[in-house]
Each structure stands twice: as C-alpha cells, then as structure tokens.
Amino acid sequence: MVALSPDEVAALGRLARIELTPEELDHLAPQLDQILEHVAQVSEVAASAVEPTSHPLPLTNVFRQDQVRPSLAVEEALEGAPVAEDDRFRVPRILGEEA
C-alpha cells in the first residue's frame, strides 16, 4: 500500500474543514496509513458469501400492539406536581428563553 503524504492528509483535512498544522500532518499521516491498512485487511476477510448482519442472533419485533386505555385525568396527573399552571406542569425556564 502506498503511504499517504502530508499533502494528501492536508487535503482530507480541508474536506473535513479541519485546520491542521504541519506537525499534525506529519503525525497523522502514518496513523491514517495504519488505519487504511487495517481496513484493507478487513475487506480481504469479508467474503461475498457471508450475509451481512446487524446482530448475531435473529431478532423479532418486541413491540406490543397499541391499545387504547383510559388515562389519568388532568387533575390526577397534576396533583403530584410541585407547581402547575393552566392545566400543565410548570417548570423553570431554560436557555434564557423569553416568556
């Protein structure tokens, strides 16, 4: 495999919108070479006869069917709230939002 040059690493950095110093380019080029070598090794092992999987065991749908059931009344839901306002839970304002 051909080693990546610092210029090629700089081009990758520009594509990723990462500004790299010359020292970082010299440091990253050999590391990226190693990564590419490992990816090439994995690609050699991956056989077309092996079906890709996302999980080693087959999965079945674990969701239950939706069923309409009675829910709490507004008053019951809010009775444990520290503060309620206009039939809603009142919570502290966050992120400097204006009311």
Automatic annotation (TrEMBL):
Gene name of this polypeptide: gatC
One Gene Ontology molecular-function label: transferase activity
Function per UniProt: Allows the formation of correctly charged Asn-tRNA(Asn) or Gln-tRNA(Gln) through the transamidation of misacylated Asp-tRNA(Asn) or Glu-tRNA(Gln) in organisms which lack either or both of asparaginyl-tRNA or glutaminyl-tRNA synthetases. The reaction takes place in the presence of glutamine and ATP through an activated phospho-Asp-tRNA(Asn) or phospho-Glu-tRNA(Gln).
Subunit structure: Heterotrimer of A, B and C subunits.
Reactions it catalyzes: L-glutamyl-tRNA(Gln) + L-glutamine + ATP + H2O = L-glutaminyl-tRNA(Gln) + L-glutamate + ADP + phosphate + H(+); L-aspartyl-tRNA(Asn) + L-glutamine + ATP + H2O = L-asparaginyl-tRNA(Asn) + L-glutamate + ADP + phosphate + 2 H(+)
Protein name (record): Aspartyl/glutamyl-tRNA(Asn/Gln) amidotransferase subunit C
EC number(s) given by UniProt: 6.3.5.-
Family named by the database record: Belongs to the GatC family.
Biological processes, Gene Ontology terms: glutaminyl-tRNAGln biosynthesis via transamidation; regulation of translational fidelity; translation
Any single Pfam family the record assigns to this protein: GatC
PANTHER family named among the record's database cross-references: GLUTAMYL-TRNA(GLN) AMIDOTRANSFERASE SUBUNIT C, MITOCHONDRIAL
Keywords associated with the record: ATP-binding, Ligase, Nucleotide-binding, Protein biosynthesis, Transferase
Gene source species: Microlunatus elymi
NCBIfam families assigned to the protein according to its UniProt record, in alphabetical order: gatC (TIGR00135)
